[in-house]
């Protein structure tokens, strides 16, 4: 079994802390291979709707898109982790999600579990968390994927989540959902 962690954060703050806790918990899953892609460290150009991928099954751009999408294809579980930027996910993560289009038909044939971790500065009753959750609901419904967990956390300063022992323990325990 393979899990792919897609880190949408451009810095090593709360999202990084969350993924480190998740990886620690994933050690409890026998035979689980965990890969990670930091969205800011890959060169993924924006989709230009040329639809070449519809004919070839690959993105026309000579960048990291095809490698990233292949990693998603090979994973049994994909975890999307992102800080909140203007009531949504980061642009870096959105670029990767947009490029899933290049393999949408093939991705619909796969059975994947999805995890979502969202960290924002706002309190939990803020609409930003619901907006992001709804976007992933739509993506997963379209692809026929199952959401294993969608957890949101409030953390403003870069080290706030690390100081929240209860939240870190909860994230470590998310492995039980796979």
Can you walk through the features of this model?
With 178 residues, the chain is α/β, with parallel strands linked by helices. Helix 1 crosses helix 8. Helices cover 40% and strands 20% of the residues.
Apparent shape? globular
C-alpha Rg (nearest Å): 16 Å
Largest sheet properties: 5 strands, parallel
Average pLDDT: 95
State the helicity in percent bands.
Answer: 25-40%
β-strand amount: 15-25%
What class would the helix/strand composition place it in?
alpha/beta
* Through-space gap between termini: 10 Å
Q: Strand arrangement, largest sheet?
A: 2-1-3-4-5
| SS element count, helices | 8
Could you name the ranges where pLDDT drops below 50 across 5 or more consecutive residues? Answer: none
Would you report the number of β strands?
5
Compile the SSE list and pairings.
Layout: E1 2-7, H1 14-26, E2 33-38, H2 52-56, H3 65-74, E3 77-83, H4 91-99, H5 104-108, E4 113-120, H6 127-143, E5 146-154, H7 160-163, H8 165-172
Helix pairs in contact: 1-8
